[in-house]
Design brief:
Elements lengths: L10 H11 L8 E4 L9 H16 L3 E6 L9 H13 L8 E3 L4 H13 L3 E4 L3 H7 L17 H13 L8 E4 L14 E5 L13 E3 L1 H11 L4 E5 L6 H11 L6 E5 L11 H9 L14 H7 L3 H11 L10 H15 L2 E2 L1 E2 L2 E6 L7 E7 L9 E7 L1 E5 L19 E4 L4 E9 L6 E8 L17 E2 L1 E3 L4 E8 L25 E9 L11 E4 L3 E5 L10 E7 L3 H8 L1
Parallel strand pairs: 1-2, 2-3, 8-9, 10-23, 12-18, 16-19, 21-25
Antiparallel strand pairs: 4-5, 5-6, 6-7, 11-22, 12-15, 13-14, 15-20, 16-17, 17-18, 21-22, 23-24, 24-25
Helix pairs in contact: 2-11, 7-8, 11-12
The protein binds one RNA strand of 75 nucleotides through helix 5, strand 6, helix 7, helix 12 and strand 19.
Amino acid sequence: MNEQENTPTNFIRNIIDEDLKINKNNGRVVTRFPPEPNGYLHIGHAKSICLNFGIAKDYNGACHLRFDDTNPSKEETEYIDSIKEDVKWLGFDWGENIFYASGYFGQLYDFAVQLIKMDKAFVCSLSADEIRQQRGTLTEPGQESPYRNRSVEENLELFAKMRAGEFGNGAHVLRAKIDMTSGNLNMRDPVIYRIMHADHHRTGGQWCIYPMYDFAHCLSDAIEAITHSICTLEFEDHRPLYDWVLDTLQTEHHPQQIEFARLNLDFTVMSKRKLMQLVNDKLVSGWDDPRMLTVSGLRRRGYTPASIRNFCEQIGVGKRNSRIDMGILENAIRDDLNEIAPRVMGVLDPLKVIIDNYPEDQTEELEAQNHPQNPEMGSRLVPFSRELYIEQTDFMEEPPNKFFRLGPGREVRLRYGYFITCQSFEKDAKSGAITAIHCTYDPATKGGNAPDGRKVKGTIHWVSARHAVKAQIRLYDRLFEVENPEADKEKDFKEFINPHSLEVLDNCQLEPALTAAQPGDSFQFERQGYFCVETKDSTPEALIFNRTVTLRDSWARENKKG
RNA sequence: UGGGGCGUCGUCAAGCGGUAAGACACAGGCCUUUGACGCCUGCAUUCGUAGGUUCGAAUCCUACCGCCCCAGCCA
């Protein structure tokens, strides 16, 4: 499907439009997506990616991919690789503009020295606990550190020694000298450098002091001459510090920080920390478990890049804390797959049908459209024979009036096949389960049309038993049972995991054309939903499909209503 | 009791002083060899509340009310 040509506007685009009007930044627009490589990207990051790269694209600007790798104790190369893969897969291109905060460590160090020389920063030798105690509270001002008035010379010397590795972790920190009485806690002489004897995944053992976010981020933005630095709401309180650093250092560029509301989705959690817990506690199979709202999970589940981009466009960008309905995400993937997925027949829960008046050893090849709305996608031949499988749910012993499917004496159409009428059925005496049904077919209705013009209300899918390919199908449901797993203050979010979020069906019967399906290929199993070939576990000998999303089912809804 | 934000349909969200877009959801109807898709219709006399300014306010002013974020040597 086509993505909308004109992206809906939002307050950030309005700001940029205004900036352009007054020729701010000489008309340049440069954004950046700055992930910390400490986890996999999720749908919330996708929103930010679409926002930043989308703006760059629409304003003929650029969007930098910059890894905010200032904390070696949490970051790993594995995450860098996955992030790059995910951004690319989503359809965005950073071109030459890939950067690392760690690439600026030298410059950042020099900026810190400059701050010290301006008497705007000092080495503080208080412990972490002491600093916390002296920071004050939300309503009381903090106290100034006893080390606040060290001489510039002493600060310079101490900072050099910090860098040289003469002190252990935590012995000293470098703090900006701002205002311990500020109502904004971030301005109460924030720590901007800490000692951390740890190898960095990119700079190795070169450094044993690392800059804090508030110092590294704004300066990285300035170094790259970013024009609009878009981040989430919780950084609103940091903006004064962002501006303070750049103003005091009088950097050539001073990007504008703009905050927007992060994405929250119903029935899931959206923080890397919590997603990591699910992985580590083995509650899911990994970061790319198809139930995870990670980019890699969605990809494995069968979501397309276009569907995610459309979703991000539909939800908009604002400053309100909101919670988006899962239905919007599902609608986005249905919308895309409806256009592009070939149609195919597969029976998830098979029920044997014997067509008593069909010759025992006969087989026919019936033509089926790959996409009824798009004839260009062609057709295929589907084998038909005396014994078939239909969906267990397509037969009822005592069907209600509005049930359009099979029941004793009822006639239905087999899609692209024949009209069949149920004559009798076999039932397991003990369990009461229907084990097989006997039908007769009308040879005149081949292909699905009755020459006498008679109509049937129902059309059901089927598969020839003799020709069927057996496959495993994994059905997914929302990972959590409650709308907001994080809302309960008493209970841990993991207690709300939906025990039925994964259901594995091992006896599915598919039409033989599916043998040729390749990992990642998506199909619509008619009347069921969209499914894709599992990328990790499926083999040509043992096909495995993931259900991406069901089709809308107004019959099920009607039933629920009662 | 400090500082920073936010309050427009069930859920998102436009709107920027001229008389409430759109999307999803929902309800009806049409179409149908997918109870899918598609199509049509309906869906906020009202914008957290109360005042005020104005010919005119969701948009400006004032005061309340409610919700979110901040006390990492995390980002």
